[in-house]
Task: structure prediction
Amino acid sequence: MGSYGGNLTGLLPMPETTTSVTAAAPDRAAELTALVNEYSGTLYRVAFSISRNAAEAEDMVQETFLRVLRHRDRLPEIRDARVWLIRITWNLVLDRKRRQKTRPENEDISELARVLPAKEMRADQAVIAAQRHARVLSLIDELPAKERQALLLSALDELSNAEIASVLGITESSVRSRLFRARRDLAEKLRKEGLKS
Amino acid sequence: MKPSNPATDNLAANYTQEINGALAALAAVQPREGLEQRVLACIASAPELPWYRRLSIMPVGHRGWALAAASAVIVAGGVTMTTYHHRPTAAPTPIAVHVPRPAQQPAAAAGSVGVSNHPLDENKAKTRHRGVHRSYRAMHEHVPLPHGTAAPMRPQAVPAPQ
Result:
């Protein structure tokens, strides 16, 4: 079994007689490279919001672009590449989570502690804040799936309600109602936990 | 959807900062340096899919052509097989020749069913019991005996002891 080669411009071997197609091959490879450069970070955050594992999130990003590579002929048909990519990553992460069934108990608090604004607080405060965030996130995981998914996608600043609706395949009003229910239920859980704002 | 309750709405408002803080932390997560390069390297070294996997993910238009080509090959193969395997061959007409069979002598009849007096054939004769029985019937039922000869006693005609 061969490989796609070390050069992305050689991804689409085409007959040289069709000049229009040979021109399209490097275009598509360049388009794929541009997608990787532009959306890797967003897809990483989407994957991390579900998996809470840095290595797994990175695997998901790579798997997403492998899927894109396999369906590269459809790239010109895609209207909104960002939502399309997020939807691929989202489904991949959910699939993997479903297959794993049991979720590891230890949340990746170190990852959260790493991204907190450490300059504004002392080290011990940063650790405490990371633990509080991890606790809130674990409560989010206890929410019903529909509400949880809407809430996690809303956490990404890049996504509007319309885009969340597109990713989840629901209407925009459904997204709003799910977000409302998610926040209300989460606040109730926080009250029971005794976490004070 | 449940009716809005002012108490719970107020509760949600109280915890908004807490919730937003956690979600913001989640949204601020950054990948390790060089994620793009790793992804590009992964794509470049990805193995090509086998033909059947490529067919399954092929766009619908291309898949239609591939299916048409595969169907044409199957039909052509079927036609070829049918042509070569079902070619009509003239069956040989059986020639019926009626030859009257000469009446066999008892000794010859016995010999014809494989009964032999040779000592080497003794074991073989034992395994041919049915053949011997048939030869007995052939000799005494179907072959007319000469006049004045007493018919041999049949085994079933022997009276049972009283």
Q: What stands out?
A: Chain A touches chain B through 59 residues (CB under 8 Å). Confidence is low (pLDDT under 50) at residues 5-22 of chain A. The helical segments of chain A are 19-51, 54-70, 81-100, 109-115, 123-141, 145-155, 161-168, 172-193.
